[in-house]
Each structure stands twice: as structure tokens, then as C-alpha cells.
């Protein structure tokens, strides 16, 4: 990296700071995934930190929690993203989202992503909340009349 070493270091530092903010006091599997990727493709984890977190996730205009909601929706729509969902669900919680908001975000994906992807994502939500020992998500009020 000739001529841009300082800028590249700044991007990486911004990205690493955002990741640390999202991880909170519970390091996520992202760190291990990046370590394993670096064994095969050393530039891939660096590019993810610089671009996804240093350039995009750190932009002004949306706070970290809202960015995590958008990311969660995209990951659900893509499907086959369980590892990434774990990181972004955890990051969303660490950024201030509630367990109820995560459940609603996943439910919001249902008409657009379909039942299989929504069900798979909800199972990931369940596991993340269970691993964190977060309180259970309260059931939404029913619209049906109670039995008499």
C-alpha cells in the first residue's frame, strides 16, 4: 500500500473500533472466523474490517443499532448466513436493540424472505438469546377473544 498506508490504517482502526463496540464484553465468533480466514486469505479479514466496518458501518446517518437491523434483514434474505446472523444479532443487542426488537425484525422479513429463511433466522435468535441468558421474549397480545 504505497501512499495510502495512513489512510488504510485509519480505515482499519475505525473498523476495529466499531467491531469492538458491537462485540461489547462478549467476543463473538467473528474473531475466530477472521483468524481462520487469515490462514488462507490474509487480506480477506482486513478488507472486511476496513470496508464493511471502517467505511460503511462507521458512516454517519444511522446509529449502530439501526445498521445492525438493516444487516440482519439482508442476511435473512440471503439465507445460509447463520454465522453472520449470530454476530449481527449479538452486535444489535450490544448496540441497544432489545430481544423483542430482534424478534420483530425477523418477523418483518417473513413476507419478503419466506418461511424457511425466517424460521431459520428465528432459531438463530432463540440460540443467541439463550446463550446470553436474556429474558424470554414476551408473547405479543393476542387479537383473538379469550376462551369463555
UniProtKB/TrEMBL annotation:
Entry GO MF terms: peroxiredoxin activity
InterPro entries assigned to the protein according to its UniProt record, in alphabetical order: 4CMD/NDH-1_regulator, AhpD-like, CMD-like
Record-linked Gene3D superfamilies: AhpD-like
Sequence ranges assigned to domain Carboxymuconolactone decarboxylase-like in this UniProt record: 42-126
SUPFAM superfamilies xref list: AhpD-like (SSF69118)
Protein name, UniProt field: 4-carboxymuconolactone decarboxylase
Biological source species: Actinoplanes regularis
Lineage: Bacteria, Bacillati, Actinomycetota, Actinomycetes, Micromonosporales
